[in-house]
Amino acid sequence: MLVLKFGGTSVGSIENMTNVKNIINDGQRKVVVLSAMSGTTNALVTISECIKYKEIENALELISDLHKTYIQTVNQLIHQSDLQSEVELYVSSIFDTLKTTVNDNYSTTLSNKIVAQGELLSTFIFSRFLLQEGLNACLLPALDFMRIDKSNEPDCFYIRQNFNRIINELPEADIYITQGFICLDAEGQIANLQRGGSDYTATIIGAAIHAEEIQIWTDIDGFHNNDPRVVTDTHAISNLSFDEAAELAYFGAKILHPQTVTPVRDLDIPVRLKDTNSPAAHGTLITNSIHGEGIKAIAAKDGITAIKIKSARMLLAYGFLKKVFEIFEKYETSIDMITTSEIAISLTIDDTKNLSEIISELEKFARVEVDSFRTIVCLVGHHIVYHPDTPKLFQILQDVNVRMISYGGSSNNISLLINTGDKIETLRKLNRYVFDLVPA
Ligand code: ADP
Ligand code: ASP
Ligand code: MG
C-alpha cells in the first residue's frame, strides 16, 4: 500500500483539491493523509491564544470569520444535496463546539482540541467530495489509532495494532482518508505532532503498515538546495539520503517536519516529495542510497540560544563536561551545537523552557553568558567534511559574522551559528559561494 500526504495548500482551494482528487484516482489502494486547509491551523492557534488571554470577543469574531470561509468552500465544492447537507451539518457542529470553548479555562488540552479541528474539517469535507466524484473513499479517524507515549514518541505497537484492526473493520475501499498532525497522548487526551506534523503522521503510518512508498505532496517541486523563500535561483534536488534529509529537516528546512524520516529510515521505505501543481515533475526521492558529492543543500534554524560556560577550573580538569551535561539532562534540554576551549564551552539549545533553572545550576561553578536570537545555518552533503572543495567555505568567514562553527561532528554536516539578523544575507552569500562557485 502507498501512503500519500497532502499539505495545507494542496487542500487549500477548490482547484487544488481537484488536483489531489486526480492524483489519487489511479485505482491503487492507498492511505491519504491530509493537513488542515492552509491558514486554518494558524487561525485556530490565534483563537486559542485569544481564549488564553481572555479576549473572548476577538475569539468569537475569528471563529465566525473562519466559519464563513468554510461555508463558502463547501458551497463551491459539494453540489450533491444529501452530501452538502451532511457536510454543512458537520461544519456547523465543529464551529458550534469552538464557540462553546471560548468561555472555558485555558489549558494545553483545550488548545490542542481547538487546533485539531482543522484536520477534522479538511478530511471530512474532502472525503465527501471524493464520494460526490464517485471515488471509493472512506474516512479513517486518526484519533482511533494515532497515539504518542509519555516521551512524546509515537507508540508504534499501539498504532500498528489499531490501524490494522480499524482498516479490517471498515468497508473495503480504495482510498482511506485520515488526519495528519493530530493524535492522542499517553493519557488519551487530544494532542498533536507539533506544527507541520502531517509529514510525520505519513511516515509513522507508512512504517506501521510497511508501505511500499510514502509520498509527500506539497506546493513546490521537491527539496531545494537552499531556502526558496529567501534565496532566488534555488533548485530541486532529485535524490537525498535519509541522513541528508534528516539533517536538513532537523536544521530548519520547512518542507519536512524535523522527525519525518525517523520512522522509515531503518525500514528503508522510500519517501518521495512531489508537487501537487505539477505531478509530472520528478520531485525528490529520499532513500538509503548516496547520490552526488559535495555540499548539496543549506538550511537554517532560528530560535537558537547560545550559552557560554566559562570556568578557570576547567583548565586541565576532567569531569567538567559531565557536570555541565548532567544539568541539561536533568532539565530534558537537548543541545544542538557545542565547541570547547581550555576554559570555556559554548553550546546551543532551542528549547528555553528551563533556561533560568539551567543557568542557576551552571552559575554554581561557572560564569555563564547567554545570547538569544541566534540561527544555525547547516550545510549538508554526503561526507562533505572530506570533500576537497569544502575548505573553500572558510573563505567566506571574512564576510559573515560566524559565532560558532561545528565541523566534523558528523561527516555530512557543517553548522555555523550566526545572528538571526544576518540569516538572509548569509544564506544568499553561501548560495553564491557554494553553488555558483563565485570566488570569495
Ligand atoms: P505543506 O503545507 O505542504 O506541508 P510547507 O509549507 O510545510 O508545505 O512546506 C513547503 C514549503 O517549504 C515550500 O513552499 C517552501 O517555501 C518551504 N521551504 C523551505 N525550505 C525549503 C527547501 N529547502 N526546499 C523546498 N521548500 C522549502
Ligand atoms: N496543520 C498543521 C500545521 O499547520 C499540520 C501540518 O500542516 O502538517 O502545522
Ligand atoms: Mg508542512
From TrEMBL:
Swiss-Prot/TrEMBL keywords:
Amino-acid biosynthesis, ATP-binding, Kinase, Nucleotide-binding, Transferase
Per its UniProt record, what Pfam families does this chain match?
A: AA_kinase (PF00696), ACT_9 (PF22468)
Q: Does the keyword S-adenosyl-L-methionine apply?
A: no
PANTHER family, sorted: ASPARTATE KINASE, ASPARTOKINASE
Please state which protein family the record places this protein in: Belongs to the aspartokinase family.
Domain of life of the native organism: Bacteria
Name the SUPFAM superfamilies for this protein: ACT-like, Carbamate kinase-like
Species annotation? Gelidibacter pelagius
> Catalysed reaction per UniProt?
L-aspartate + ATP = 4-phospho-L-aspartate + ADP
EC number(s) from the headed UniProt entry: 2.7.2.4
Instruction: Drop me one GO molecular function for this one.
Output: aspartate kinase activity
- Residue spans making up a coiled coil are none
Please state what class of enzyme this protein is: transferase
**Boundaries of every Aspartokinase ACT domain copy:** 377-431
Name of the protein this chain belongs to: Aspartokinase
**Aspartate/glutamate/uridylate kinase domain segment(s):** 2-274
The pathway it acts in is: Amino-acid biosynthesis; L-threonine biosynthesis; L-threonine from L-aspartate: step 1/5; Amino-acid biosynthesis; L-methionine biosynthesis via de novo pathway; L-homoserine from L-aspartate: step 1/3; Amino-acid biosynthesis; L-lysine biosynthesis via DAP pathway; (S)-tetrahydrodipicolinate from L-aspartate: step 1/4
